[in-house]
């Protein structure tokens, strides 16, 4: 754990100690966090971004330069500057992002989310290790914090993509992702032209307040115009609308966006299944669903609806996923038309979504 706030260090230590984890060290700044990782070799590092001296981004870069293989769960307060930094951290290789609670009312939800994401990070690392060095039980966690406000299918090599058939009309592309999604989107979207399909929708599981920074970063790097979705705007060619964190992205019959603050489903808001089922009602067989890396099963029920309507379903192959959860659920349900490595997905999407 690395955090320069004594109060937040106590909160994080208490939260993680009650979620089947062992705290192997606590750091108050970036240099201490790096030294802690070199000394203790933790299964996971919980990392604040705004720390004295070397900040969280600097820690991530130093870990990479020193070949220290530890998944990092970023714990960050939200502000416009923190949002940008958090998205940068995900692009630098952080495993996941958890928003610090704004007050005592959000503490219980924060504790549950942090524990869940730390366990997922530890399990993902265990699957990457040789069998003889599996993750410790409970997972060993190092904490680095700053100022407050399942078993997978066997891996297989990526298969070359071949279009199953020529689409009869331009398709709308709907992308769903979670853990590892920001990095996957940063590779996928810049490789797509601004003319792809009849429009693009993106549902990325992310805390409220951070998706605006993600959309801005993707927009700078992509031919598509990428923006955070706004209530009432229309989906169309050349645009990619990103679901705002903290809101469900719904689609009205006239193909306009409707943002909903209805309760989270399975702890998720936005929930991709809601967006997908709405999109099926509007576009039917003209919908192309693309499910990228992520924990859980969100997108599975949506994929059923897409296939029933005659649309197409692509999923990211395990070989390039950070977490092979959402794609695996669809593959196991025999709903995927194609399972493709991230490197070949742009070509596949372009061919399938365009005339």
Structural description of this entry:
The protein has 355 residues and is of the alpha/beta class. It has helices spanning 6-17, 30-40, 56-65, 80-91, 107-128, 181-188, 211-221, 272-283, 300-309, 326-332, 345-353; strands at residues 2-3, 21-27, 44-47, 72-76, 96-99, 139-145, 172-177, 200-204, 225-228, 239-242, 248-251, 257-260, 287-291, 312-316, 338-340. The chain folds into 2 domains: 2-145, Rossmann fold, CATH 3.40.50.2300; 172-353, Methylesterase CheB, C-terminal domain (Rossmann fold, 3-Layer(aba) Sandwich). Helix 4 packs across helix 7 (211-221). Residues 130-137 and 146-168 have low confidence and may be disordered.
Keywords:
11 helices; alpha/beta; 2 domains; Rossmann fold; three-stranded parallel sheet; 355 residues
